Amino acid sequence: MQVDLRSDTVTQPTEGMMQAMMNAEVGDDVYKEDPTVNQLEAYVAHLFGMDEALYFPTGSMANQTAIKLHTLPGEQLICDKWAHVYNYEGGGASFNSGVSCKLIDGDRGIITAKQVEAGINAPDFYHSPLTSLVCLENTTNKGGGACYDLEEIKKIREVCNQHNLGLHLDGARLMNAIVAQQHDPKEFGALFDTISICLSKGLGAPMGTVLVGNSSLMKNAIRVRKVLGGGMRQVGFAAAAGLYALENHLDQLKADHKKAKELENCLNEQSYIASVEAVETNIIIFYLNSNKISEQDFLNHLDQNSVRISNMGEGKMRMVTHLDYTNAQHDYVRHLLENI
Ligand SMILES: *Cc1c(COP(=O)(O)O)cnc(C)c1O
Fold it and tell me: The pTM is what?
């Protein structure tokens, strides 16, 4: 049995998703004439109660566009030290927007309103870069799928209002948080200026991210997407997969979360495990007890039994559950972990 728990991006389109893609009505989206893309954008804008949405090939491009919309060169954004926008987008914040990042030492990728406020450079102190944007990530990737408390986000919004800062959400896995905490997407739409939502993570589409926001900012998003090379033609075939995922795969996330919790429990019972981060959604981060097993031996053992996971460095091991991780695979992996 082959099991891939490296990421929730490894999924194949489901049968229904393939059908939706095959049957999609398409047009030239650079002319904004692809009916399926237009439908997806309207669907997401409505879902979050925001004015406008725009379809992007990747989450990185959607986040980078948001940063560009909120900032001018030389300015600074505030994010957690583990943020995807800082660590995993190839230095895009400086490359594309000429902005620096003030890194906050958060808890599992989550920062507080107090920390945000302390991170703002005084606007009249012209020696420092002007702070103009706060980027949050929910769920956190490197933080092990941890979710923000909505009350803390409300406080961060107040700080942003007081200091005239934009607030962007890297919501690559926002639907996981929404399902886990039983929120209404509109609660997030009311608090952020822009939100990116990946369709190719837990939702299972082969590609695509939607950036949603209010029209004052979003009116320039299509120009920035063009500059970044993200204008696509008959891309409704891919958008159809995303639309299908939003309409049909949300319940699946609950099953992913349940399996992740079960893997957490299983790992916690093993003597060769030093600790497991508390699982909130579909990501499990754990550390090995080096007195019992080395990183290499552990990974080799999994590899020899056809189970792939991610080594995040600094002793962090990561598994991510997803819709191609079947019940049979789940039994197989737990049995394997219990017999090392
Ligand atoms: C996956 C991911 C993205 C987007 O990544 P792409 O590979 O560019 O689609 C952004 N933020 C987080 C937290 C992610 O996990």
Answer: 0.97
